[in-house]
Amino acid sequence: MIPGWELVYDHPEDHAQVIRSEESIYALACTLHRHAKALSTQNEERPWRESGGWCPECVARLPPVADETP
After folding, report:
1. Would you call 57 helix, strand, or coil by DSSP?
2. 66 partner at 20 to 30 Å CA-CA among 5, 21, 34, 51?
3. How many CB atoms are closer than 10 A to CB 30?
4. 26: left (phi over 0), alpha (psi -120 to 50) or beta
5. Tens-digit pLDDT profile for the chain (70 aa)?
6. What are the beta bridge partners of residue 29?
7. What is the CB neighbour count within 10 angstroms for residue 39?
8. Contact in structure between 30 and 52 (CB atoms under 8 Å)
9. HEC states along 9-52?
């Protein structure tokens, strides 16, 4: 937990948590690397989490995407 922030909901399979500050600011937090991505709205969380591109440490560990050009 981060002081001044509360857990809104947890996505343990993605190592992610949606957290909210006392000022009602939302963020997506990586539980592996303790990185947080500020969100404009709570609804912005899903696309960021599903893209896998919100935590720089996690992105650096993703396997390279194969080129699909024939």
Report:
1. helix
2. 34
3. 19
4. beta
5. 678 899 999 999 989 999 999 999 999 999 999 889 999 999 999 999 888 788 888 887 655 555 555 5
6. 17, 36
7. 18
8. no
9. EEEHHHCEEEEEECCCCEEEEECCCCCEEEECCHHHHHHHHHHC
- In DSSP terms, 30 is beta-bridged to 16
CA angle 20, 24, 30 (to 5 degrees): 25
Q: Which residue has the tokens 């996505």?
A: 11
Alpha-carbon span 59 to 54, nearest angstrom: 8
The tokens describing 32, both together, are: 């592996």
Angle at 32 between CA 7 and CA 63, to 5 degrees: 130
- Contact criterion met (CB below 8 Å) for 5 and 25: no
For 3, the 3-state DSSP assignment is: coil
